[in-house]
Every structure is written in C-alpha cells, then in structure tokens.
C-alpha cells in the first residue's frame, strides 16, 4: 500500500499527544488530530466533542484555529485526515475513494472518538459526510455546523478537467492550484500564510475523490429529515458555491440558522477564524441565538439581506454536486 508523503506544512505530525491513528476495514490508516480540553474547563464540557471534517484537497490542518479555540473552551477537538489527504494512507486504488467508502471511514472515526455529546462540523465535501453521520448516529449527535456546503442535492461524479488521467493532472497541477487559490480565497486573503493547507493532495487522489462523489440518496428529501439544529456559514465572496445553494439548504433543513460572512470566500474558517469560531461557539451555547451580536462582518438570514443582495455579481452558477466545480469551468 502506498502512503501519502509527509505534509511539510503540518505542525503536528510529530506530536503524539495530539495525534491518533485509526485503521479502517480496508487497512487504510487515518491520521486524526485530537486536542484534549483544557484542564481548567474539562469539568464542564469534557464529555463534549467537536468533530471537524475537511473537504477535497485539504486536511485536518485547515481547522487549526478551530481545534485550538475549542479545546481551550473545554471541548474534545477532533479532526481526521480523509483518505489520501494530509498524513492518512493514500492507496492508489480508485474504489477506496468513493463516497460509500469514505463515509465508512468517517463512521469508524466517529465510533472510536465520539463522546457523550457530539457536534459535527463539515466543510465543502465534508458537509456531505457530516450530514450522513447525523442521519446514522442521530442519538449521539446534537448539532451540525455546515460551512460552504451548497445545496441539498444528490452528488454526482466529477467531469471535465478533474476527470483527466493523473498524468495530465500532474502537468496541470500548478495551474489548478493557482485557480483554486483564486476562487477559494477572498482577494484580501490571497497572500495569507499557510493557504497551501487548503489544496495539497497527489493528482491521483484528487481524481479518484472527485470521481467517487456519487451519493444519490443525499437529496432534498434526505436533508429534510435531519432533526439536529444546524448552523450554516457561507462566505459572501464564495466562488465555488453560490449563496442561493446554501439558502436552499437553509430552507430544506428543519431547524437551521444561516449567516453570510464578509471578506471570505470558500475557505471561510481559515479566512475569518475569529468570526467563525464565535459564531460556532454562540450556536453551541444557545438554542436561539439570532438576536445575539457577533462583532465583524456577519449577515444573518432572514433578517437583513437576501442572497442576491449579499452576493456580488461574480457569483458562479450553482453546481452543488461538484465541490470543486469552478476548477472545471
């Protein structure tokens, strides 16, 4: 089995206290960052866990700010590297990167790492795994947080540039990276440090993962049955997911709050970590937080603005089943 190369930008790969390894049925080894709650607060929230699931191309490192923030507030902060991402195994076998296989990996992580009360936080493609976990472990998952996730529609496999053979993707890698950074980060955040964490996978992993995005059951009917209160966060300048797609998710879920965050695009948790952390914390601590204030550029729905008013004219046509749709346009 071929394993992934060490991610040179990861700060935690030698820290055994904050890293665990989970082996799945297919002998895939998943690296999981696990930050224990601070001792001074563990008595109040030590039995609660936040489990963060990243999207295509990233790793658990994209959640660095959130892991630090919430572990200091008494939560077990847990974030796996999906197969082929970060430090997890990266076997060169397409069938291991299907949604069906990867959701089983997420279940393995959850079943081994969950606490008495659990909240799942997903980003982009990771929101699909978060929703699936919520449906399968309903009694153990109290809330959901979905960032840049798009509409409640069935997933279909990627076509276009990202379906090309791995050799061609290798040749196109520099151009694909530049295009991703251009679309995934707000123009004020183009030069932010460590943005490489958001898109750093071998070409064959990218191809297999995009090809494996098939989840016909993940439609509007499925999401309408999710009972957990859900927080939806969307960057105002997101070029990979349209605001209208997230609004559709907001209207489909039984109980949800939707906020648009200014000066942020698709990688919202990296671009505006302070605002994102405070919004999540407020959501965790209150059953009804719509009237509370979070300092910064935040617009809740339905009160101040509609998606068309919030989103500028450069919003791309929604393709919510293609989590990296803009790369093939």
From TrEMBL:
GO CC terms in record: late endosome membrane; lysosomal membrane; mitochondrial membrane
Polar residues bias (residue ranges) = 1-12, 306-329
Q: What is its EC number?
A: 3.1.1.23
Enzyme class, spelled out: hydrolase
| Region annotation (Disordered) ranges | 1-20, 289-329
According to UniProt, the reaction catalysed is: Hydrolyzes glycerol monoesters of long-chain fatty acids; 1-dodecanoylglycerol + H2O = dodecanoate + glycerol + H(+)
Q: How does it sit in the membrane?
A: Single-pass type II membrane protein
**Location(s) in or outside the cell:** Late endosome membrane; Lysosome membrane; Mitochondrion membrane
Entry-linked InterPro entries: AB_hydrolase_1 (IPR000073), AB_hydrolase_fold (IPR029058), AB_hydrolase_sf (IPR050266), Epox_hydrolase-like (IPR000639)
Q: Name one Pfam family in it.
A: Abhydrolase_1
Where does the AB hydrolase-1 domain start and stop, copy by copy? 49-272
Under Gene Ontology molecular function, one entry of this record is: monoacylglycerol lipase activity
Q: Name one GO biological process term.
A: acylglycerol catabolic process
**Stated role:** Lipase that preferentially hydrolysis medium-chain saturated monoacylglycerols including 2-arachidonoylglycerol. Through 2-arachidonoylglycerol degradation may regulate endocannabinoid signaling pathways. Also has a lysophosphatidyl lipase activity with a preference for lysophosphatidylglycerol among other lysophospholipids. Also able to degrade bis(monoacylglycero)phosphate (BMP) and constitutes the major enzyme for BMP catabolism.
- Name recorded for this polypeptide: acylglycerol lipase
- Origin organism is Bugula neritina
